[in-house]
Design goal:
One of its GO terms (molecular function) is RNA binding. This is RNA-binding S4 domain protein. Helix content is 26%, strand content 34%. It has 260 residues and is an alpha+beta fold. It folds into 3 domains: 75 residues, Ribosomal Protein S8, Chain: A, domain 1 (2-Layer Sandwich); 81 residues, RRM (RNA recognition motif) domain (Alpha-Beta Plaits, 2-Layer Sandwich); 86 residues, Structural Genomics Hypothetical 15.5 Kd Protein In mrcA-pckA Intergenic Region, Chain A (Roll). Strand 7 and strand 8 form a beta hairpin. Helix 1 packs across helix 2 and helix 6 crosses helix 7. The radius of gyration is 20 Å and the shape is globular.
């Protein structure tokens, strides 16, 4: 079957797709904003739900350039002139601690305090501090009520655009690596990229736990190319930055960005 059509909706994305359908049906005039959406949901909205809706325009934003989780803004064509100056309901929270924090700790603590995942965008962690992008409606609650991440005492504050260097956080989230593969089969690239066996990589693909450019695939032999983004559940993401050269033994050298 190779790369899947966007008609396949993973179980964990069905709820947000349903909410998107309701949001689109609700729009009659003006602007509507979604909650934070996964990349799959954004892609599904654009390529399926909005495909033939010529009277509805859209933009998305997650708080910074290159964000993974984004809020989708949909609006009637009457509002096209305002498209580049939309005010998204997003606040940026700075979390500071004495010791290092992790993405898992922060997300777990926020959800453990009763906050819903779709109100939380990207979490950028660097050492003992983190930036968390959230919906307006929960920002004050976090600043007022969250004083611990796990057992670690933290200080949470709302920061405005320009108050902090987001790039400092972004540069910590990826690692550039170069390695060789026998071919550009997706199972081979994943196996070397995450240090798992070829068989384990193939099993993940058959279980629909691997997406290429946010579309799930089920064939280990699927060929990837330069620029593709591979998402592997419970492992992270790989972006194929460059296909460099072929060695004398016929192996292909590739440069990859690995995101944890």
């Amino acid at each position: 079957m190779g790369q899947q059509a966007m008609t396949y909706i993973p179980e964990e994305n069905k709820h947000e797709v349903l909410k998107l359908k309701n949001l689109i049906e609700k729009l009659s005039w003006g602007i509507e904003y979604s909650d934070f959406l996964s990349p799959f949901a954004i892609k599904y909205a654009v390529e399926v739900l909005l495909k033939n809706q010529n009277h509805i325009l859209h933009r998305c934003w997650g708080g910074y350039e290159g964000s993974e989780r984004n809020i989708l803004a949909i609006f009637s064509s009457d509002f096209e002139e305002y498209a580049e100056n939309l005010t998204y309901p997003i606040q940026t929270i700075l979390i500071e601690a004495k010791n290092n924090l992790s993405h898992r700790q922060i997300l777990g603590s926020l959800i453990g305090n009763g906050l819903k995942r779709d109100k939380i965008g990207d979490i950028l962690v660097k050492e003992n501090s983190a930036l968390v992008f959230v919906k307006d409606e929960i920002a004050t609650y976090i600043v007022t009520n969250i004083d611990k991440i796990g057992k670690e005492k933290v200080k949470c504050s709302i920061v405005e655009n320009g108050q902090i260097d987001i790039k400092w956080f972004i540069n910590n989230s990826s690692k550039r690596i170069v390695y060789t593969v026998a071919s550009l089969r997706v199972d081979s690239v994943i196996s070397h990229g995450f240090g798992i066996s070829r068989e384990e990589a193939a099993d993940l693909i058959r279980q629909m736990k691997v997406a290429v450019n946010w579309v799930y695939i089920d064939k280990p032999s699927y060929a990837v190319k330069e620029g593709d983004l591979l998402s592997v559940r419970h492992h992270g993401r790989l972006k194929i930055e460059k296909v460099l050269s072929t060695t004398k033994k016929g192996r292909i050298s590739i440069e990859v960005l690995r995101f944890s």
